[in-house]
Write a structure and sequence with these properties.
With about 375 residues, this protein is mainly α. The protein folds into three domains: about 70 residues, no CATH class; about 210 residues, no CATH class; about 60 residues, no CATH class. The protein is about 70% helix and about 0% strand. The chain contains 14 helices and no strands. Helix 4 packs antiparallel against helix 5, helix 6 runs parallel beside helix 7 and helix 8 runs antiparallel to helix 10. It is rod-shaped, with a radius of gyration of 41 Å.
Length: about 375
């Protein structure tokens, strides 16, 4: 997997499930629910529906990623020459190479309907590289272990050199996976499946180490030209670089043309794909205490927003009569009088005088007040 594809996959796992789930759930509510009965965020029905939609999206995206991983593998030398890795004869290899050489010979370059020229020369070079690699036990051993990198390893002249290169790659891959796990540990908010992730990396490294330590190193005199018998007999002939376990996997899962190097790539991609799926689905079906607390806080937030809306409605309703100018003017006048009275009542003498004035206003006409009787 290239760096661009890896980052595209990470971005896809980070954003696509939530976006697609929200879209599907909203469309489902529009089709099957009335606006008044639509479950709202924070309600139990809304969470249950979201859980199932989210699981469906994750499962679909997981199946697509796994399929894309298997389909995106470029054809290796076995596919190019149409021979099986587990058993083929040198005569069969030569026959297929000659047939394809005649078919893709540069002299037979043709022009297609869209005025483009078929690259027969490039394909012919690929065919020759494939034939030379599979026909030579040492090169075939290196191709099985390190892929096309065997051509770049100029200092690799023996099977032991290729084996050393493959083990160095395995160590680098294990260290890189460990670094990614540490980074994933800090950026992953739910931390679900931490133990499973570590065990998965250890199991993957152990399996790859088993494949490397159980390879059959080709002998110096095991050139296929010595005999016209099978190069492979159950995966244990001196020329076979693959252990018996790989041949069993090829038979069980239909991985009939995968090399050791390609199998390692596929396993790594599938491992990280399942890690991303597990980190997405785990908290949904097995929420932690922190997640439960977060859900309770979400419910409290929904209730507080509902109370705020109702309080605002009642507050605005209580001031509804004062929307007209005349009630507002009366209210303003009364509030001004209350303000003046509050200032007067702060002074005892003014408060006493105001009280006497109110008494005179309330007393019947012609009746003397208490003050008048005292003065007379």
């Amino acid at each position: 997997m290239s760096l661009v594809n890896m980052w595209a996959s990470l971005v896809g796992w980070a954003f696509l499930p939530d976006l697609v789930t929200n879209f599907l759930q909203s469309q489902y509510y529009k089709l099957w629910y009335e606006p008044a009965t639509t479950p709202r965020p924070g309600e139990s029905r809304h969470r249950e529906h979201r859980r199932w939609f989210y699981t469906l999206v994750i499962a679909t995206y997981l199946a697509y990623t796994v399929t894309q991983t298997m389909v995106s593998l470029p054809p290796n030398y076995y596919k190019t020459l149409a021979v099986a890795p587990s058993a083929f004869r040198p005569k069969e290899l030569r026959s297929h190479f000659r047939k394809l050489s005649l078919q893709y010979h540069p002299d037979k370059t043709t022009v297609t309907l869209d005025n483009t020229t078929n690259d027969h020369e490039g394909h012919m070079i690929h065919l020759r590289n494939a034939y030379e690699a599979l026909n030579d036990p040492i090169q075939r051993f290196g191709y099985e272990l390190v892929g096309n990198e065997y051509r770049e390893c100029s200092q690799c002249t023996t099977a032991g050199d290729y084996l050393h290169r493959a083990r160095s790659n395995l160590i680098g891959s294990a260290i890189g996976s460990g670094i990614v796990l540490v980074i994933f540990h800090f950026i992953n908010r739910n931390q679900f499946g931490r133990v499973l992730r570590v065990l998965g990396v250890l199991a993957l490294a152990t399996f790859e180490l088993y494949l490397l330590t159980h390879t059959s190193v080709p002998l110096p005199n095991s050139h296929p030209a010595v005999t016209d018998g099978p190069l492979f007999v159950g995966g244990q002939s001196p020329v076979s670089p693959a252990p018996a376990l790989l041949h069993a996997l090829r038979g069980w899962y239909g991985l009939t043309t995968l090399t050791l190097f390609e199998l390692s790539i596929v396993l790594h991609q599938l491992y990280w794909t399942f890690v991303m799926a597990l980190s997405q689905l785990g908290p949904v079906w097995f929420p932690s205490h922190d997640e439960q607390h977060r859900q309770l806080l979400q419910q409290c937030r929904v209730l507080s927003e509902a109370v705020l809306r109702e309080t605002t409605r009642l507050f605005l309703g209580s001031f509804a009569p004062f929307r007209d100018p005349q009630p507002r003017a009366e209210l303003r006048r009364e509030m001004g009088n209350l303000a003046v009275e509050s200032l007067i009542l702060r002074d005892p003498k003014l408060a006493e005088a105001l009280d006497k004035a109110y008494q005179r206003l309330d007393s019947p006409a012609g009746e003397p007040t208490a003050d008048r009787g005292q003065s007379s």
